[in-house]
Design a protein that fits this description.
The complex is a heterodimer of chains A (434) and B (446). Chain A has 434 residues and is α/β, with parallel strands linked by helices. Helices cover 29% and strands 20% of the residues of chain A. Chain A has helices at 28-37, 86-99, 115-127, 150-153, 156-169, 186-194, 238-249, 268-276, 286-291, 295-310, 315-318, 352-360, 385-389, and strands spanning 6-8, 11-13, 17-19, 41-47, 62-66, 72-77, 104-109, 132-136, 174-177, 199-202, 206-208, 211-213, 218-220, 230-233, 259-262, 281-284, 338-342, 365-367, 373-375, 396-400, 406-407, 412-413. In chain A, helix 3 (115-127) packs across helix 5 (156-169), helix 5 (156-169) runs parallel beside helix 6 and helix 8 packs across helix 10. Chain B has helices at 19-23, 33-41, 50-54, 61-69, 73-83, 87-93, 100-103, 105-110, 116-129, 152-163, 180-183, 194-203, 222-228, 257-266, 286-298, 318-326, 424-444; strands at residues 10-11, 144-148, 167-172, 208-212, 231-234, 240-241, 254-256, 275-276, 278-282, 302-306, 330-332, 335-341, 348-357, 360-371, 374-377, 381-382, 392-393, 396-397, 410-412. Classes of the chains: A alpha/beta (434), B alpha/beta (446). Bound molecules: flavin-adenine dinucleotide, flavin mononucleotide and iron/sulfur cluster.
Chain lengths: 434, 446
């Protein structure tokens, strides 16, 4: 059995699956159930400063995008940080950590952007015995308007400053949670590193309006006729999150900064993808909110089955393995040439490839009177749209031409050597190939 | 007096009263909104979709299914009804397993087609339940068209003509409109008086007058119609039935399956409808299956269908045959009736096994007997009452692609006319196409 044990930024947990800071980790009751269910760690729902807690809306908090069978594809929320008193949360954190010493207990924090505020709360958190803190610089609604959350996360200088305070006033590992609501995710990550962060985690939710009520002309969720932008999460955000993770992982400035991957992780495979893109562990919110805590069983069994099958012994052995293969477009090999091939035995004659290629692409598929579809090699540019729209998996595949083969589209022979855009004759700023 | 399934002879009320409603309920339950969303998501929106080609009325199936999946059932219904004004009935009675669903690429791929028929019903039911008639008549043309027969062919023709602004009078020999939708289709395919409701809904277009009790060849004649109207459409179906040509056919309780079915369809009180303890049905088409299954549902103890050829030659689809088997009907293939025995009423039917030698049927000499208190003949309907001056071949009025008969100004379609299978949907298509052609010819004469 593969070893799923994880050490992330010095914090140990029996597996790399943590629950992200959100309703699943809002109180002792939930977190105990989560640990019983087998989660490796939790990031406790974000705490605010001492005093009267924030209040949430008393109407709907969620909006959603569904597939036809009502599979939840995207979730949007307008919830704030914890609305329970600080002392209650701290007491509960301490009690749970005491009973589950092997699990990771991270406390998410969001207090005003003032040194005193951070200096005040950190000792209280330390006193609970928690393993680390996560700085919530991501929440895109409600708190941002008050100068916290993503309002901080969008200004690299603030990130650096607050991170530095936390390192200065606490001995706990500091994870900086990043907002995706920014143009270049590398800047806040670099700032966190400069401030001394032990790790970053991302993504928090994405600014979004998930749907509009067409009878009342109001965004949803709607409260008394109005709605506001909320934070988007769930399966729909995974591609965005993975790109941001990869950008940080392959940036030389932050390449050695541990990353906790978050955003749409629903199955073991999602988790594995984040891990090979450079994450030391992963955090899950929406999937748990959709299916309950039990999903972690599938995540653990799936990840270990895959690792066993492939002979990967530990998380560390696979973490970041895909990072060297993430490159910039200009370095892609333009001399690799493929053609679409349709497996006539597998084809069910739906004609979707034809409609796609004929109407919107390169007119490279031929349709006979009796609905046989074939690729015209002299037109096919290998875009693979046909593969994407074909409902039968592996019916259409891309076959790579061998060096020396004729590309019927260009009339030229396939070159054996690597050749990219930087040296292409059509590139006005081409440099000679080396 | 209470009867049971074992009561000898022909008797009513063989079953507990409350089991009739169950037995005659919807064959395929309507889809709920969520089921429809899931079912519609399975459609691949094929290019030049095979299902569309297979549909005799060429409904744009991928489009209407996509309209359902985006929550616009009314638009979906319009897409259906523009091509097939009886899309509601067709959704219930079409043998989709040999039409659209047979060629669905998901049938090819996984043996499980998109549920086109049920989705069609979902869309049309939604619209009809809202009490909406989605079409409006064009300005009146002042032209008058006579339609004979208020079945699917006649009504489809009438609706299309009315839509174009013509005034239509529909004559039917029966006391109620609807044709076999009303008198023939199995009751579990058209529950809650759907046929009647659909006719009323169809007539909301306006400009159509129905005159009942008017029978061509009796109190109505073609020359008079041709003189009084600008065009005539004949959609009179097949009102006669084939004879068995077996000895003893005239014995008691030997009846035409279509009459039994018609009585059943019109019955207010099913428990009061008598049925035999042992029922034998002769024939292999939909009528035979419907008579057999409904006898069983009425409480007959044993029901046997006997067909003279093999399973694959049977007119009823495999689905229909399986339906019959699942209801407890026994099907005997390759046997033909020789004689009906009994003292006054039928008691036994004598059969001979057959061999089908490339279409040529002959008896093997081996005989067997089936006990029968009731014998239904379902060996095909025939054309009756067709005007003498029309060309008739192989029992059908000969028509062109667009329904023109051999007599100028007279069109025909549906079961009574040549071309196409004897199906509701084909009748609708032919009625519609004839209407288009009538409209063209009336417009040209201007
Ligand atoms: C028992 C049975 C079950 C069937 N089940 C199915 C099924 O499940 N699915 C399917 O698709 N098809 C089924 N069919 C076939 C389908 O019902 C017919 O193909 C369809 O009804 C033909 O429509 P039509 O308008 O041509 O004729 P009809 O529906 O027969 O209508 C003809 C009309 O003309 C009237 N008429 C007849 N003669 C005269 C006259 N001389 N003067 C005036 N009026 C006249 C009749 O009263 C009738 O109203 C079934 C048929 C039968 C008999
Ligand atoms: C209802 C809700 C409340 C959330 N509250 C917080 C929060 O208090 N602090 C925080 O750092 N992130 C919060 N998040 C963001 C999640 O921790 C997580 O970053 C995001 O949902 C993406 O992961 P997912 O796709 O697995 O849900 C919240 C998310 C949801 C859905
Ligand atoms: S790969 Fe692109 S261009 Fe080639 S056949 Fe497929 S859709 Fe057409």
């Amino acid at each position: 059995m593969a070893n799923l044990a994880s050490t992330f930024a010095g914090i140990k947990s029996p597996n790399p699956f943590w629950l992200a800071s959100a309703p699943p980790t809002d109180k002792e009751y939930n977190v105990r159930r989560a640990f019983e269910a087998g989660w490796g760690g939790v990031v406790w729902k974000t705490l605010g400063e001492e005093g009267p807690p924030v209040v949430n809306v008393n109407g709907p908090r969620y909006g959603a995008i569904w597939g036809a069978d009502r599979r939840l594809l995207g979730l949007n929320n307008i919830e704030l940080i914890t609305d329970r008193p600080l002392e209650v949360n701290l007491r509960e954190i301490k009690a749970v950590k005491r009973d589950y010493p092997d699990r990771a207990m991270i406390v998410s924090l969001m207090v005003p952007c003032e040194e005193e505020a951070w200096k005040a709360i950190l000792p209280h958190v330390e006193e609970t015995g928690a393993d680390g803190i996560e700085l919530n610089f991501g929440c895109p609604h409600g708190m941002a308007e008050r100068g916290m959350g993503s309002a901080v996360g969008q200004v690299p200088e603030y990130i650096e400053m607050v991170t530095r305070w936390c390192k200065q006033y606490s001995r706990m590992p500091v994870i900086v949670k990043l907002t995706p609501n920014i143009t270049d995710i590398r800047r806040p990550a670099e700032a966190a590193k400069r401030g001394g962060a032990d790790a970053v985690s991302l993504i928090n939710t994405i600014n979004s309006i998930v749907s509009v009520d067409l009878d009342n002309f109001a965004p949803q969720p709607t409260i008394d006729g109005k709605g506001t932008h909320g934070g988007y999460c769930g399966p729909a955000v995974k591609p965005i999150a993975m790109n941001m993770v990869a950008e940080i992982a392959r940036n030389p400035e932050t390449a050695d900064l541990p990353i906790s991957g978050i955003g749409g992780i629903t199955t073991w495979r999602d988790a594995a993808e984040f891990i090979v893109l450079g994450c030391g562990n992963v955090q899950v919110c929406t999937a748990a909110m959709t299916y309950g805590f039990k999903i972690v069983e599938e995540m653990k069994s799936g990840l270990s089955q895959w690792m066993d099958e492939k002979g990967h012994e530990s998380i560390d052995a696979v973490a970041g393995r895909a990072v060297p293969n993430v490159t910039d477009w200009q370095y892609l090999n333009l001399n690799k040439i493929s053609k679409a091939v349709i497996d006539q035995d597998a084809c069910i004659s739906c004609g979707r490839c034809f409609a796609a290629c004929e109407d919107t692409s390169h007119q490279a598929i031929e349709m006979s009177d009796d609905r046989v579809f074939t690729v015209k090699d002299d037109e096919c540019v290998a875009c693979n749209l046909c593969v994407v729209v074909c409902p039968v998996e592996n019916c259409i595949t891309m076959k790579e031409l061998a060096p020396g083969d004729l590309d019927e589209r260009t009339g030229e022979k396939v070159a054996a050597e690597y050749g990219n855009w930087t040296a292409h004759p059509n590139n006005p700023s081409a440099t000679a190939a080396e | 007096m209470t009867h049971s399934q074992l009561t000898p002879g022909v008797a009513a009320g063989r079953l507990p009263r409350d089991s009739y409603a169950d037995n005659f309920s919807d064959l395929h339950a309507p889809l709920t909104a969520h089921e429809a969303a899931v079912a519609s998501d399975r459609c691949y929106f094929c290019h030049d979709a095979p299902c569309m080609t297979a549909c005799p009325t060429s409904i744009d199936i991928p489009l209407f299914i996509r309209q359902i999946s985006t929550g616009t059932e009314e638009s979906a219904a319009r897409t259906i009804l523009e091509q097939n004004i009886m899309g509601g009935m067709c959704a219930r009675v079409c043998p989709t397993e040999t039409l659209c669903e047979e060629v669905c690429v998901r049938e090819t791929a996984e043996g499980k087609p998109v549920e086109i028929g049920r989705l069609q019903r979902f869309a049309t039911d939604t619209l009809m339940e809202k009490g909406v008639h989605p079409f409006a008549r064009a300005a009146s043309t002042g032209k008058k068209v006579a339609v004979v027969g208020a079945g699917p062919a006649g009504l489809s023709c009438a609706h299309r003509l009315a839509l174009k602004g013509h005034d239509v009078v529909v004559f039917d020999g029966r006391a109620k409109a609807g044709g076999l939708n009303e008198f023939g289709i199995a009751s579990y395919k058209s529950v809650d008086s759907f046929a009647e409701r659909e006719v009323a809904w169809l007539l909301e277009i306006g400009g159509i007058e129905i005159r009942l009790g008017q029978r061509l060849g009796e109190n109505l004649d073609l020359d008079a119609l041709a003189a009084d109207y600008d065009a005539v459409f004949l959609g009179m179906g097949l009102a006669g039935v084939n004879a068995l040509r077996a000895d003893g056919e005239d014995k008691g309780n030997v009846t035409d399956a279509v009459d039994f079915i018609s009585d059943l369809r019109q019955a207010d009180d099913l428990p009061a409808l008598p049925v035999g303890r042992n029922v034998v049905v002769i024939g292999g088409g939909m009528t035979a299956v419907d008579a057999a299954v409904q006898s069983k549902l009425l409480g007959a103890d044993s029901v046997t269908m006997v067909y003279r050829r093999g399973k694959d030659r049977m007119g009823a689809s495999l689905f229909e045959q399986d339906l019959a088997s699942s209801k407890g009907v026994r099907i005997i293939y390759n046997a033909m009736p020789v004689a009906v025995h009994g003292n006054g009423a039928v008691q036994e039917v004598e059969f001979e096994y057959t061999v089908d030698d490339g279409g040529k049927l002959s008896g093997t000499g081996e005989r067997f007997f089936l006990a029968a208190d009731q014998l239904f003949k379902a060996i095909g309907q025939t054309l009756t009452g067709a005007p003498a001056d029309l060309t008739v071949e192989r029992g059908k009025i000969v028509v062109s692609e667009t329904g023109r008969s051999s007599r100028a100004g007279v069109w025909a379609g549906g079961d009574c006319a040549s071309g196409g299978d004897d199906l509701t949907v084909t009748a609708v298509a032919e009625g519609r196409d004839a209407a288009e052609d009538i409209h063209t010819s009336l417009s040209v004469k201007e």
